[in-house]
Design brief:
The complex is a heterodimer. Helices cover 6% and strands 49% of the residues of chain A. Chain A is mainly beta. Chain A has one domain. The longest helix of chain A is centred in the first third of the chain and has 7 residues, at 3-9. The relative contact order of chain A is 0.19. By secondary structure, chain B is of the alpha/beta class. Chain B folds into 2 domains: 4-113 and 199-220, Peroxisomal Thiolase, Chain A, domain 1 (3-Layer(aba) Sandwich); 127-194 and 224-367, Peroxisomal Thiolase, Chain A, domain 1 (3-Layer(aba) Sandwich). The chains are: A mainly beta, B alpha/beta. The A-B interface holds A 4, 26-28, 51-56, 61, 63, 71-75, 84, 98-101 and B 118, 120-127, 130-132, 134-135, 137-139, 142, 185-188, 232-236, 239.
Chain lengths: 110, 368
């Protein structure tokens, strides 16, 4: 099992960052796809940015970008109308046959 | 440079029938031998099979079942784009001088494993194509003001065209209202915005310039080819344009020495209505943001220029057969044999086939 999947099963979203060129390897890989360097695994930095969203059967789903490198699709767990560019938190993640990503809106601080 | 032509083609009736993939494949290959003059099994140097089916060694099986002992024989799998990929592979063998005649057969069963790309972890649990298509649709609406009604015109147009395609899965006309009143699958796409997976098969016979006239008085030449894979992950796409299509089209136009304005007829990969709009913009047939009104004009004027056989939405989408059925249709149009679907004075045709949330595209330019 990959480092990524193992992390998800423990509820952690980990990314591999290249030890040579610092690029984040996404999608998850065993090495950097840019320079073939080795990866150092760490937790994803929060929050991300909402790129787009829609809704199916009353559940909002969206694409969120983290660290300008990791774009993932998941479900918004709050019943709110999000806006593009809004800060979004990866609230929960897991792995059961496929990855599962759940997002929540980061409240704006005045 | 060795020119390569489509000299014969066949498409079977698309359906929901439970037929073994071997049976689907040979049912498309057999009419090639029945309908092509001077063709014997000994003429065929290459047999390629396009499918996402998990069965093994299908090109050798098809060869044996049709009495061919080819020099080159293998399968090609590239999800929904397998068909065009297989034809371009066969084209390359002939163009390189390794072969003179190639039979390319594509087929898919209804239960194809190619409908979902499990590998793409960036989609999380949202593996079904409706999710990425809805992201495209919402982003296009947001950027260009595209409406649900404009999308409905694409579906109504393609279903209307499919009514004259005897091989379409369900040749039935739907009005704009029918599409607008069909089940809302997501906030941004309805049931009739979607193409439907089905069973089906198609085949084309390619020949070198040296051999083409032996088999046909009306060979259709492949004058431009372009392919591009940008990634395998949907989320790496820009959401309002298809870069793989832009790149593939540029290559094909350059090779054929044409501009998009010269295209008379095209089959494009309308997996969803939104895809047709983004593809037409990516191909440069219309500027970005203008495809929706273009589709309305096509519908209102009864033009069959785009997706004359009904595209994927009108005909059904048997993945491994789709690209080959598209090429068969454009060959048929350029031969002047498309009967009620015929586009008048079609001189330059285009085929666009793509895969996996638009991460790869193939474009062919064809002419008589």
């Amino acid at each position: 099992m990959s480092v990524f999947e193992t992390g998800l099963k423990k509820g952690r979203f980990v990314v591999g960052q290249c030890s040579k060129c610092q690029k984040i390897a996404w999608p998850p890989n065993d090495f950097c796809s840019g320079c073939f360097g080795s990866l150092l695994w760490r937790d994803l930095k929060q929050p991300g940015t909402l790129l787009e969203h829609s809704q199916k059967d009353g559940r909002k789903f969206c694409i969120v970008e983290f660290e300008r490198a990791v774009k993932i699709m998941g479900v918004l767990i709050e019943d709110v109308e999000p806006t593009i560019g809004q800060n979004i938190q990866l609230a929960n993640c897991g792995f059961d046959k496929s990855p599962r990503f759940e997002f929540s809106v980061v409240p704006e601080v005045n | 440079m060795n020119r390569v032509a489509v000299v014969s083609h066949s498409t079977t009736k698309f359906s929901l029938e439970d037929i073994p993939v071997e049976g689907l494949l040979v049912s498309a290959a057999r009419p090639i031998f029945e309908n092509t003059r001077n063709l014997s099994q000994n003429d065929v140097d290459v047999v390629l099979v396009s499918t996402n089916d998990n069965k093994k060694y299908l090109s050798a099986i098809v060869s044996e079942l049709t009495g061919i002992s080819p020099k080159i024989s293998h399968s090609v799998e590239s999800l929904c784009n397998s068909g065009a990929n297989a034809v371009i592979s066969a084209y390359s063998y002939i163009q390189a001088g390794l072969a003179d005649v190639a039979l390319v057969v594509g087929a898919e069963r209804l239960d194809s494993p190619g409908q979902v790309l499990e590998w793409d972890v960036s989609r999380g649990e949202l593996k079904h194509p409706i999710f990425w298509a809805s992201m495209f649709a919402k982003a296009h609406k947001r950027k260009f003001g595209t409406t649900d009604e404009q999308l409905a015109y694409v579906s109504a147009k393609n279903h209307k065209n499919a009514k004259d395609n005897p091989n379409a899965y369900q040749p039935k006309e739907f009005s704009i209202n029918d599409v607008m009143n069909s089940k809302k699958v997501t906030d941004d796409l309805r049931l009739l915005d979607c193409s439907r997976p089905c069973a089906g098969s198609a085949a084309v016979l390619l020949a070198s310039e040296r051999e083409a006239k032996k088999f046909s008085d009306t060979p259709v030449w492949i004058s431009g080819v372009g392919q591009k894979t940008t990634s395998a992950s949907f989320t790496k796409n820009d959401l309002t344009s298809i870069q793989s299509t832009v790149d593939a089209a540029e290559q094909a136009y350059r090779m054929a020495g044409i501009e998009p304005a010269q295209i008379d007829v095209a089959e494009v990969h309308d997996a969803f209505t939104i895809c047709e709009l983004m593809i037409l913009e990516g191909l440069g047939i219309v500027p970005a943001g203008k495809a929706a009104n273009y589709a309305i004009d096509l519908y209102n004027t009864g033009s069959r220029k785009i997706n004359p056989r009904g595209g994927l939405i009108g005909s059904g989408h048997p993945l491994g057969a789709t690209g080959i059925a598209q090429i068969a249709e454009i060959a048929c149009q350029l031969e002047g044999g498309a009967l009620r679907r015929q586009v008048n004075s079609a001189g330059i045709g285009l085929v666009h086939n793509m895969s996996a949330a638009a991460t790869s595209s193939s474009v062919l330019v064809m002419n008589p």
